[in-house]
Design a protein that fits this description.
With about 450 residues, the protein is mainly alpha-helical. Helices cover about 70% and strands about 5% of the residues. The radius of gyration is 23 Å and the shape is globular.
């Protein structure tokens, strides 16, 4: 019996090693096929900061992007230059994170969501979701952007929090997990500042869960240790802030970005970056204009929000309009028109992407409804994951800010495929009718969204 157990464990480990290797090779092949050597805007800033950083964060001339990702990119650059290729190290790093995400991290995500899966099914579902991610968001891996890596480190922190509060372990193991948990949640915030709210919420969950379970020793040990992890991860940022701004703050200096985001989010329903022919679209900043929000700002004669008080006054004065604005923000995030993230052509045919994503969304909603149970801890973890999406919703939203939502949609769609096929076979007329009606509405809104671009209108076909 013991030998059989060891044999199963060995096969389990081998399966994950093989899966990581396959996913890594898949990612590397795509990187080599695309062979991106260009840098644009945000990804150029991250890479340039990384090249400047080296082993000392004081080499960075700007603290706005945090210290962690530029430092990682610095190591990627150094490794790549050993082989005479500036981006070779990044491609290896990106492929490693992609492979680990959709195998190891994915396994724990399914566990947190209370999905019971065999090792084989977990790896198959993870591989399919990874393929879908590359289909709709490959630009986040091809370019040296931050979103996927912030999500990855935040989910490692989430998994550690889950293990701390739900698993029976030795207290010293929980202490180690709490320390790494603190490093991860600060690291996510340092890479993308909107994860500040995620970091705060995670610490609160750790405290509240421990109190509810009356695990006093766990709370006394893990909360201070996790705060210690946060502090340790913030030390380079403190050094950088002191060097640049002469203060000892662990905060990433955002230079008023949040207030600017709130203003942009009033008159813009979505934002993207254009790098193509200027005769097709005049500006790099591709704003999808919300005429309601624009009208409100013009009516109130607001050229620039100078305080959060001004923003909340507007919301209180036009509550239904703002509900509509932010509801449209959410709907706009369900249209993955441009998988490269940096848009080279607004005229590309979007039919296939929209049909595939709508079908995925349809199956995901179906399975979500059929598997819904109120008394489930999965909602806590799902809510934690979605906090950055919710908090950025009032800003000038970009679809890359909502990869967490899309990941959850992929998981529910792939996990629910078998049940959907069974139900479809028994009542295909009903489901086909709902699918077609929904698709017509989905495509109708797609056209309305594309028609709101500021300079030059794209069409679906």
């Amino acid at each position: 019996m013991r030998k059989n157990g060891q044999c199963k464990k060995y096969k389990h480990i081998v399966s994950y090693v093989v899966a990581v290797g396959v996913l890594f090779l898949f990612s590397m092949v795509i990187h080599m096929m695309v062979n991106n050597v260009d840098f644009w805007y945000d990804d150029a800033v991250y890479w340039c900061l990384g090249k400047a950083c080296g082993w000392n964060v004081k080499n960075m001339a700007w603290g706005f992007r945090g210290w962690l990702l530029p430092f990682i990119y610095s190591m990627c650059y150094k490794f790549g230059m050993i082989f005479g290729s500036e981006l070779f190290g990044y491609r290896i790093f990106s492929s490693c994170i992609f492979a680990l995400f959709f195998s190891i991290i994915f396994k724990y995500l399914l566990e947190i969501f209370n999905f019971k899966c065999s090792t084989k099914k977990t790896l198959v579902v993870g591989g399919i979701c990874g393929g879908l991610f590359f289909l709709f968001f490959r630009g986040l891996l091809v370019y040296t952007l931050s979103d996927f890596y912030a999500l990855t480190i935040s989910l490692v922190g989430l998994i550690l929090l889950y293990k701390i509060v739900t698993c029976e372990q030795k207290i010293y193991i929980k202490a180690v997990e709490a320390f790494i948990f603190g490093i991860c949640i600060y690291g996510a915030y340092n890479i993308r500042t909107i994860y500040l709210f995620f970091m705060i919420a995670c610490v609160l969950i750790l405290v509240i869960w421990s109190l509810c379970d009356r695990k006093w020793l766990q709370m006394i040990i893990t909360v201070p240790v996790s705060l210690g992890g946060i502090f340790v991860c913030s030390i380079p940022q403190i050094i950088l802030n002191h060097h640049l701004h002469n203060n000892y703050s662990m905060a990433v200096p955002t230079e008023g970005l949040m207030l600017s985001q709130l203003q942009w989010g009033i008159y813009s329903g979505r934002y993207a970056t254009y790098i193509g022919d200027k005769s097709k679209y005049a500006e790099a900043g591709m704003f999808f204009v919300d005429k309601i929000g624009q009208t409100i700002l013009e009516k109130e004669q607001i050229a620039e929000l100078v305080s959060y008080g001004d923003f909340f006054k507007l919301v209180l004065k036009y509550p239904l309009d703002f509900i509509g604005i932010y509801a449209r923000h959410f709907l706009n995030m369900l249209y993955p028109f441009y998988p490269n993230q940096y848009i080279k052509s607004i005229e590309n045919d979007k039919t296939l992407l929209l049909v595939i994503f709508y079908t995925i969304l349809f199956i995901a909603i179906f399975y979500f409804i059929h598997s819904f149970t109120i008394k489930s801890s999965r909602w806590i973890w799902m809510a934690l994951m979605l906090i950055p999406c919710v908090c950025i919703l009032p800003g000038a939203v970009e679809i890359r800010f909502f990869i967490t939502l899309h990941l959850i949609i992929y998981i529910y769609a792939v996990m629910g495929m078998k049940k959907f096929v069974i139900c479809f076979r028994t009542n295909w007329v009903k489901y086909l009718l709902i699918y077609v009606i929904g698709f017509v509405l989905y495509i109708s809104y797609a056209g309305a969204l594309l028609a709101t671009t500021k300079d030059g209108i794209a069409i679906i076909n």
